[in-house]
Amino acid sequence: MTILLNKDGLRSRVRESDLVKTVRKRGVPYLLLSPTAILMLVFLVYPLGSIFYFSLQNYNVSKPWDNGYVGLGNFITMMHDALFWSSLRVTANWVVAEVSLQLTFGLIMALIVNEAFKGRGLARAVLFSPWAVSGVLTTTIWLLIYNPAVGVNKYLADMGIGQYGASPLAGADSAFWAAVLAELWRGVPFFTILILADLQSASGELYEAAQVDGAGRLRRFWNITLPHLKNSIILATLLRVVWEFNNVDLLYTLTGGGPANATTTLPLYVARTAITSKDFGYGASLTVAAFIILSIITILYLRLTKFGKGL
Amino acid sequence: MKSNTLEFTTRDDAIREECKRRALTPGGIAKRKQKNRDRFLLYGSLTMYVIFSAVPFYWMFLFAVRPSGSTSLVPWPMTLEHFRTVWFGIGFGVFFKNSVFVATLSLVLTTGVALLGGYALARYQFRWKAPFLVAMICTQFVPGSMMLIPLFETFRSLGLINSLTSLIIVNTVFGLPLSIILMYGFIRNIAVELEEAAWVDGCSRLQAFRIIMLPLLRPGIVGVGAFAFIDSWNNFLFALMFLNVQDQFTVPVGLSYMLGDFSVDFGGLAAGGVIAAVPVVLVFAYVQKFLVQGLSAGAVKG
Question: What's the pLDDT tens digit per position in B25-39?
């Protein structure tokens, strides 16, 4: 490395003992990284470890007289908790629906805005913009759309489609899909942006060669574009699975997990246990369960897709 | 991967020949028709999706500016009455100030610390470099909602509940890993020789960094800063958990309480939404071009 030829050569007139010199030279990167390391250790690693400790405690802020070590008690409660099991099912549906739809639309849109056409800059800006919007704001917007009295439903009923007073958030199934649509609106740009970035690094030569060989549009997509995008799609999908798994903001404010817990995902259950019922012990146990599930999914996914090979 | 010039020209020629041949044959006309159909399909689906992206924003805007009780679908006549109610009556003026404070300090802290770390990773060789990078990537799989309980406990023992400082710390901690990885990529893309030239001319490392590197790093710093700003502006769950006093609320928390008694005032709710949207949409519009280029430049690829 060229760094070894650095200014120490020029500074050699200043006399320093070998030890001080070594510390100076070796210590600099650690010194520069120390703020990051300290922040991470205090506010990420330590709290993360403490979850496992809390999960073995009876710890409810509003019922301090009951607090104390319970061993695996919380986990036994969890096994008999119907809401825990139903939240797992909802989480799976939610993640699969969101990620697959976002990937499909994100990929299509990335391919389209990668083409050259008039007004591309503006089209991109509009397409990307929902990405910057928070979960609470998404809820605000979509509640105004879904509201039975003033929302889209009213205007449709004015035209004779459907009936007045119907809200997609009222039924269990329709509430789930209404939430999926709102999150889809916000989530597609993530895939569009990442895939578009990768598309721009694809070499034009390959496409030209394929065109000369007479490969059609679909063939070119299947044999050139998709293999080129493979790694970024795998990475984006994985990040998104984790992200949607933990997406609490939107569901917490849009449906609150209802109706009848039809949209209560596991992390939402955790958030409600922590914020509303202040049962930190049980909440920590649910968190440990979520953590284990997420780790297993991540490892399996990386194994199955052989990510990183040939990078 | 560079092919030589000879190969290039022959391939170009071949394509040109092919184009000529196809254009003249009857098949060429069918090809052109196919092309028109492709264009139509492309523009059609693009237009539909652009409408899907834009209409929800328009819908909110409509509610925010039309007088209460109006059902018009065009924002005319316009009124600022809802903004006044929300800003002065409900306290969005205070929420907005809190959000700006938190987001700005988070931005400065995240970018500054990431700059130091990114420089260390890009310009020095040391034993813990690879493990450190791997650890940074691993943190991306530790989700916020799982940190609610333990972080609440941590901040309570530090006496930082109901203080905006706790939010700034949380935003920085969650924003740092990605910021450091991005910054590492940006700095690595700048040739070391530029810095070395400055050292030879008698600059210290710090001077060289300030004079040579900072100007070159501007796009990267702007990008990382924008991410940090948007993320902290949007942070909701921790703000909801840590802040219980109304004059400490940030915009998303204020908005969520309005959602609670939602049936009352749609215009006010929409106006609150517009207030929450404007800063991030502006920042995003400014950096979105850079976003694709920056990621494409290999910043995220190992």
Answer: 555 667 677 778 878
Query: Which of B148, B257, B286, B301 should we substitute to test contact with A (largest number of A Cβ atoms within 10 Å)?
Result: B148
Q: In Å, how far is B6's CA from the nearest CA of chain A?
A: 14
| Segments forming the whole domain that contains residue B40 | 5-79
Nearest-CA residue of chain B relative to A45?
B139
In a 13 Å sphere around the CA of A13, the CA atoms on its Cβ side amount to 1
Distance from CA of B138 to the nearest CA of A (A): 11
Phi, psi of A58 (to 5 degrees): -85, 110
With CB atoms and an 8 Å threshold, state whether A197 touches B129: no
Residues B129 and B32 reside in one and the same domain: no
Query: Do residues A12 and A103 both lie within one domain?
Result: no
Spatial CB neighbours of B16, under 8 Å, sequence gap ≥ 6: none
**A15 & A123 share domain:** no
Find out whether A167 and B285 touch, Cβ atoms under 8 Å. Answer: no
Whole-prediction pTM:
0.83
The boundaries of the domain holding residue A36 are: 2-46
Domain shared by A86 and A198, yes or no: yes
Could you report the per-residue pLDDT of A13-34, keeping only the tens digit for each?
445 566 666 666 778 889 999 9
